[in-house]
C-alpha cells in the first residue's frame, strides 16, 4: 500500500482529502482573526461527526484519524469554556466512543454471546489489558495523590487506546471487502496528511525566510495560540519549522523507504526518490533531534535486515537511495530559502545542523532536558515500582526563554516531561513500563512473523516504524501521546488483519 502504484490508483481520493485538510487549516487561520468562527466550526465539526458516525461508524473514525494525522496537539479548533480549552480532538474522541457504545449495545441485544466472542478475539487483548490495569491504577493513585485536575489532564491522552473498540467493531461486523476498503481509506488519509504536512513545512520556511510582510507575524502567533508547532529563528534569516505531527513524516519515510527493495522500473525509482526527498526535506527542517535519532535507528535496523535477507547489493541500493534522498532534501530546502522572488536575504548555515546534533550543548532546550533528567532520576528512586500516578509534578531549573519570562529564577513545575519513557515510569511505575514493553514486543513479533512467513515488506516497514517510535520516545513523549498511540493502535490492528498479507 505504500508504493506509487497504490498512490496513482488512489490519486483522486488522496487529492480530495489533501484539499479538505488544506481548507480546514485555512479556516483555522481565519478564525485567528475572527474568534467566533472558531466556535462555529468547532460545533459544525462536532455535529458532523455525530451524524456521520451514526450513519456509518467508519466515517466518524475517518474524521478522528484525519485530525490525528495532521493536527499536532488537537487544538486546530477549540471551545474556550470558562478559561478551559476543550480541543476538537477530545470532542471527536468522545463522539466516536459514545456512538460506538450505542452501536455495540444494539448489536449485543441481537447477537448476545456472539458479539462478545468476537470482542474476545481483539488482537493482543491480553497485552492491552495488562497495560490498561496499570494505567487505571495510575489514574486512581493520581487522583488521590495529585488531585483530579492534574491527574485527568495528564491521563487523557491514554484514552486514545480505547479507539481499539470502534476500529475492531468495524473489523468484526463487516465483510472482507468492506474491511479492505476501510483500511484503504485510512491509508489514503495518512498519505494526504503527510503530503499536506510536507507542503506546509516548506511553505512556512519560504514565508519566514523571505520575511513576507503582513503574514508571518499572524501566522506565528496562530501557530503558537492553537498549539500547532514551533517556528524558531535559527539566525541569518533561517527558520526551524517543527510540528509535532511531523512524526508521521518520519514514519512515512521509513514505510516508503522499504519499497526501494522491490522497485524495478526506472520510472518508479525516480518517483520514489522524489517522494523520499520531499519527506527528507521536512524531516531535516524539523530540526528535531528525536526524529533524527528515531530515523537513524530504523534505517540501521532495516539495513541490517536487508543485508541478512536480501544480500549486500540490495543493501547498497537501499543505503545509497536514502543518502541521495537526504542530499536532494537539502537542495529542496535551499531552493525554498533562496527562491529569488520575493528577494531573500536568508542564509542556510550548516552550523545550525551540527549544533542541533550536539546533545550536550548549552542550548536552552538541551540544558533544560538534562536538568529535568536529574530530578526525574532522583524522584524515581523512591517511586520506581508503582510510580506516583498521573499528575505527578516535578520542579526543575529550566533555561527555556518562555519559562524565564514568567519566572526570574527559571524554576518550573510540570507533570508533562520530555523524557517519554521516564514519564511513563514515573506515572505507571516499573511494572507499568514493563507492561508497555510487553505490548510492544508482542506487536513487533507479529510484524516479524508476518514478514518472515509471508515475505510481506509492509509488515517489515511497520515493524521498523514502531522501532522508530520507541527510540523517539526516549527523548520526546509520543508513546503516551495520541499521535504515537494512534499509530501504534492502527498498526497493531492492521498487522493482525487477515488481509494484511495481500497488501
Q: What is the β-strand count?
A: 6
The arrangement of helices and strands along the chain is HHHHEEHHHHHHHEEHHHHHHEHEHHH
Tally the helices: 21
Rg over CA atoms: 23 Å
Sheet having the most strands: 2 strands, antiparallel
Outline the structure in words.
This protein is mainly alpha-helical. Among the domains are: 121-173 and 361-503, no CATH class; 209-357, no CATH class. Helices cover 71% and strands 5% of the residues. It has 21 helices and six strands. The strands form three sheets. Strands 1-2 form a two-stranded antiparallel sheet. β3 and β4 (238-242) form a beta hairpin.
Strand and helix layout:
Elements: H1 4-9, H2 11-33, H3 35-55, H4 57-70, E1 78-81, E2 84-87, H5 88-111, H6 113-119, H7 125-146, H8 148-155, H9 164-173, H10 176-209, H11 216-225, E3 230-235, E4 238-242, H12 247-257, H13 266-285, H14 289-310, H15 312-338, H16 350-357, H17 364-383, E5 394-397, H18 401-406, E6 411-414, H19 420-454, H20 457-472, H21 482-496
Antiparallel strand pairs: 1-2, 3-4, 5-6
Helix pairs in contact: 2-3, 2-10, 3-4, 3-5, 4-5, 4-10, 5-6, 7-8, 7-19, 10-13, 10-15, 12-13, 12-14, 12-20, 13-15, 14-15, 14-20, 17-19, 19-20, 20-21
